[in-house]
Amino acid sequence: MSFAKDKLLEEVKKSMQSPGGKGKQGLSLVVIGHVDAGKSTLMGRLLYELGRVDDRTRTANERNSTKAGKSSFSWAWGLDGTTEERERGITMDVALQSFSTTQRQITVLDAPGHKEFIPNMISGASQADCALLVVDASTGEFEAGFERGGQSREHLILARSLGIAQVIVAINKLDQVQWEKNRYDEICALLRPFLVQSGFHPSKTTFVPVGAMLGVNLAACEGDDAKQLLEWYKGPTLVDLLDNLEPPSRDIVSPARIPISNIFKGQGSGTSISGRLLSGVIQVGERLRVLPGDETAVVKSIEVEEENVPWAAAGSNLTLALVSVDPIQLTIGSVLCPPTDPVPLASTFTAKIIIFDVQVPIISGATVELFHHSRDVPATVSKLIATLDRTSGKIVKSNPRVLVKASSAEVQITLRAMGSSNARPFPLEPYAVNKAMGRILIRREGETIAAGVVTAILG
Ligand SMILES: Nc1nc2c(ncn2[C@@H]2O[C@H](COP(=O)(O)OP(=O)(O)OP(=O)(O)O)[C@@H](O)[C@H]2O)c(=O)[nH]1
């Protein structure tokens, strides 16, 4: 069944008012934190507690991880999919899982903690509404994840820069410190001011003590393993907090935008892509334009939360089967959109950015890497237009010579040509037109140096 677009919008609005299907509001969650904080263990155990992983799979995971000499990773085994991930015991790609709580249908993006995989983390966080930060409470470990160069700090700043406003902090491995209340309080006290500085409102930040491996305070806080924690903790479980996350408002009226985050080229059965529908609505049978390029594709099926659906609305993390398209034209980072409302292509644009804690200031002509959803491209900061007051946004100085750490500025960015070929423009929109399409991150030599929003496309 396919609807005319205005009919479809009516249908979507109706189902949003009285949340349809399963009667739950959906949202997506990126799991972030320092390497080895226990992100995969926590998600693996949580999925088990919620009945998403059966005992047979659990036993098989236990057996296989023990055989590989990594028994402590048995809970993570279910999530860390590829052989290399299992051998190294770290998550590299972004794993996608889903589960439901009483009121929410949650899609989880388990992002890798290792520094060299920050681009995957950016891809994960740019598809999420909320973040779950996992920190390791063991002596010295929390500190390592949080000091300069630690991933807890960087992940939080990146998540906020990508538009995530709500965060749950799970303070994990408390079994390692005998469930000491003092250690929990100490970590909360260290994190609170940092979260505020990074732009998270205190009312949108919650903390929860957990023991991922033992399954303490994930779905329930009971049994022998939870005894010590129960002596001083009477608050919500992790699932209670997840159940109370607020789904952000969805922009269903703007044209559809789907940055491709993954491509699966099947044999014979066509090609599938996965990504997040940032705005608008789409339906089966619809023709979409692939940008950059001249190609179009027809949506053969839409899968959301492992179910085939006739249509999907903004905020859905979906998999689309596409037909009538040459798969070569599909690349990670390309954007699918209606042929009548294509995304502009940019090779030069202006942006308002915030400079992070950089050691080397940014000068005009600085070569950088530009991140937009799952795409990263070489670029140049081609002009420093003005430094801005961080709170009012007013111009402090026009044509500054350098941009130093913690400053705010308007700059012009130009894509850089690779070798002999010209830089290929890529799909981008001003933040004022489409929030989710207008956010960028700027990195240099493996370090994130700035984040910002696109103000104008110049060409
Ligand atoms: N003692 C204790 N160990 C834990 C707990 N949670 C996780 N671990 C251990 O910590 C190690 C790292 O766990 P992972 O779940 O792989 O960590 P991760 O954060 O997903 O790591 P990356 O994916 O590499 O970023 C494993 O050896 C786990 O068994 C816990 O609650 N208590």
From TrEMBL:
Which CDD domains does this entry report, sorted A to Z? EF1_alpha, HBS1-like_II, HBS1_C_III
What's its catalytic activity?
A: GTP + H2O = GDP + phosphate + H(+)
Q: Could you tell me what this protein is called?
A: Elongation factor 1 alpha-like protein
- Where the record annotates domain Tr-type G, the positions are 24-250
| Subcellular locations according to the entry | Cytoplasm
- Please provide the record's keywords in A-Z order: Cytoplasm, GTP-binding, Hydrolase, Nucleotide-binding, Protein biosynthesis
What Gene Ontology cellular component terms go with this record? cytosol; Dom34-Hbs1 complex
Q: What is its main location?
A: cytoplasm
Q: TM segments?
A: none
Q: Does the keyword Nucleotide-binding apply?
A: yes
Q: Which GO terms describe its biological process?
A: cytoplasmic translational termination
GO function terms (MF aspect): GTP binding; GTPase activity
Q: Which organism is it from?
A: Mycena maculata
UniProt record similarity statement: Belongs to the TRAFAC class translation factor GTPase superfamily. Classic translation factor GTPase family. EF-Tu/EF-1A subfamily.
Describe the subunit structure: Component of the Dom34-Hbs1 complex, also named Pelota-HBS1L complex, composed of dom34 and hbs1.
